[in-house]
Structures are given as C-alpha cells and as structure tokens.
Amino acid sequence: MKKTLFTKIVEGDIPSSKVAEGDLWYAFLDINPWRMGHTLVVPREPAQRISELSIESRNALMEGVVEVQRRLSIEFKTSDFSVNVNDGPQAGQEVPHTHIHVIPRCVENDNRPLWTNKNTSTPDFVMLEELSKRLQSL
Ligand code: AMP
To answer: How far is Cα 75 from Cα 103, in angstroms, rounded to an integer?
Structure first.
C-alpha cells in the first residue's frame, strides 16, 4: 500500500511541527492553520476512515485529542476547541489518513482565519517551529 503524507510524517520521513505523541498517535501543527494552534492528531495506524481503525487506535486517538487540548489550553488560555473530522473524500478529506483537527477557540485568536486563501498562502515555518517547541514543553 502506498504510504500517505501523514504516514510519512508519523515515521519521520517528512518533517513536521510536533505537538505531542503517544504509542498509537502523533500530533503536529497544521501547515496552513485556520487559527493559531491548529493541530492535527493522527493514528500511527494507516487507515483512511475512523471506522477502519482498530479499536485500540480509535480509542487512543481520542486520548491524543485530550492531551493536545491540555497543552493548547495552557498556551491559548482557553477550554474551548473546535474538533473536526473530514471522514472520507466526499466529506472534504484531502489526505487519506484519519486525522482530527483540534483548533483552540479564544478571544486572542478571535476565531479569525490566519489565511483567507489556503491554496496560495505560504506556511509560516518560523511561527510553527516556535509554537511547536513551546507546546512540546508543556
Ligand atoms: P483535511 O482537509 O481534513 O483532509 O485536512 C488536511 C489538512 O492537512 C489541511 O488542513 C492541510 O493544511 C494539512 N496539511 C497538509 N499537508 C501538511 C503538512 N505537510 N504538514 C502539516 N499539515 C499539513
């Protein structure tokens, strides 16, 4: 089976801005964040849809979401998040590897998208790297 982009990220073949990891999951900053702190939590198991994951990976994935929320809540001083899954291509899934978007919602980031046109924006790698370091230390 051809490896997905996110499998390559999980295996370290493609760099990412890590947030946290567990035995069965890995979390990293979205390269085109809708808002500051936008994180993707992915299973290490390469399944496209939630229903195709093992029970262990599926349960662990939610542990990953909560651990990411813990870190983001300290950094962004909020308990509120948008948690979103596009579960399959017809639902808007771009990368065929299950991933959960975790986005902190707070006055500071004003629920305002960082980029209005994702396709033409250039990722801010310096910002991503600095935030990644802070989140990993929490
Ligand atoms: P979805 O549309 O639900 O499949 O979300 C895919 C997400 O992956 C989008 O928000 C992209 O910005 C993000 N993305 C694509 N490539 C990368 C990458 N190399 N590193 C981090 N995030 C990525």
So the answer is: 12
pLDDT per residue as tens digits for the range 31-80:
998 888 999 999 999 999 999 999 999 999 999 999 999 999 999 999 99
The protein residue whose alpha carbon is closest to atom 17 in ligand 1 is 31
User: Of ligand 1's atoms, which has the minimum distance to the CA of residue 30?
Assistant: 22
Residue 99 appears among annotated catalytic residues: yes
Domain that holds residue 74: 5-136
Check if 94 has its Cβ closer than 6 Å to any atom of ligand 1.
yes
Domain count, the chain: 1
Token pair listed for 37 = 């702190």
| Ligand 1 pocket, mutate which of 32, 85, 86, 116 (most atoms under 8 A from CB) | 32
pTM score, two decimals? Answer: 0.93
Cα dihedral 27/134/31/13 (nearest 10): -60
CATH of the domain at 12: 3.30.428.10
